[in-house]
C-alpha cells in the first residue's frame, strides 16, 4: 500500500476531462469562473445520488467510507479495512497512487481471489467512455496493492419492473469491462503525466471541434468559441440531419457558397433555396391535402411526462415516460374550440387518473393530433396495457392518432427555423405573436423539473400552486400552437 497522499492533484473526473480536451481540464482548474451554467446539472446530480444510494442499500452489510474530515483520513480508513481482514462490501473506497485519488463506488469481496469492483451508473447500459473511468480506478487500485479480480459498470436494467413497493432487487446489472480496460490501463501513467504537465503549463491552444460535445458537452465551449472569428450568418450546419457535414469536410462553411445543383436531397435543396432567397416555402395545397382526411371533431393532444431512473410506482420501469399532464383542445368542423386538461401534482401514480381523464375528455370519434405523435400514441397504448378495463377506449383512441410534424416538414420552411421543425422553431415563423419566452415553463425538460419540484415534500402550497399554473400554461400553449400552425399551413390565418 502507498503512503498517505501528499497531494491530490488529479481524480477520475479530471482525467476524463483531459482525455476529452486538455484545455477543458486546464480551464476547470485555473479558470473555473468561465464555465457556463448547466441547467440540468442539479437534476442529474439528484438522479445519480438516488441511484448510488440505492445500489448501496441493496448491499446492507456494506461499510461507507466518509470523505470527512478529509480525504487523507478516507484513504487511511480504506487501508485499514483492506489490510485487516475486512470481508464485507466497501462503499466509496478511497485510494491514491501518484497523486491520483479515486473513490470506488463498490468493492465487494470475491472469495479468496480479491475484490469485485463496480462503478455505479444511472444509464441503462455501459457506454464507451465508462471504460476509461473504470481503467483509472483499476490503475490506482492495482498500484495501491488492492487485488481486483473483476471490474464492471453497474448500470440500471431497463427490463426491471417494480412489482412490490421498496423491492428493487434486480434493478441493477453488471457489465464486466475489465478486459476492455486493460489497453487503457497500460497507458495510464503516461496519461497522468501528460495531464499534470498540462496543468503546470499555460492555457492550451486547443481549437474547438467535435470534442466539444463528446462524450459530454463542455462547460467552456462558449468561452472557446467566442475566441474564434465570426462565422457566416447562415452556416452549412443549418442543413438538417447532418447535411452540412459533407460541406464542412470540403472546407465550405457558408451555405450561400454551396452550389444548389449539388444538393441531391430534396429537403436540403428546399432549406438552401429558402435560406438564400429569404422566401418562405409554403405548399398550401399539399398541406390541405395531407390534413383533409383528419375527421372532426379534431383533438389536439400533448402529454407531459416524467421518467424516473428508479421507478416510484408499481408496474413502472426505469425511465418509463409516465404522463402526469395532458392538454387537449377539441375543435369542431365549424371552428369552435374547447379546452380540456389534466394535471396531477400530488406525487401519487398519475397513470389511472390520466387514463380516465383521457377517456372522459377526448371525443370517441375524430382525429387525435399530436406533433411527433408517435410519442402521444405510445403513451396512450401504455395506459391501455396498464388498465385493461379502459383498454378498448384507449386503443381505439390510439388508432385515430395522426401527426402534424411530417405535414409541417413537407409543406413549410422559413429560414428562421434554421434547419429545425420543432414546434418551438416553427411557431414564431407562422405566428410571431405566439412564443414561449414569457412562460415560466418553456420546454419538456423544465416541465419535468417543475413536476419534480412540485411533488417534493418540502414544496410549499404556494409554490405548488405557482408550478401548477406554469405547467398548465405551457402544455396548453403546445396544443394551441398546433391549431394555429395547422391553420397557417392550410392558408386559413
TrEMBL record:
Residues 300-422 form the DUF2779 domain. It comes from the Bacteria. InterPro entries: DUF2779. This is DUF2779 domain-containing protein. It comes from Sphingobium olei.
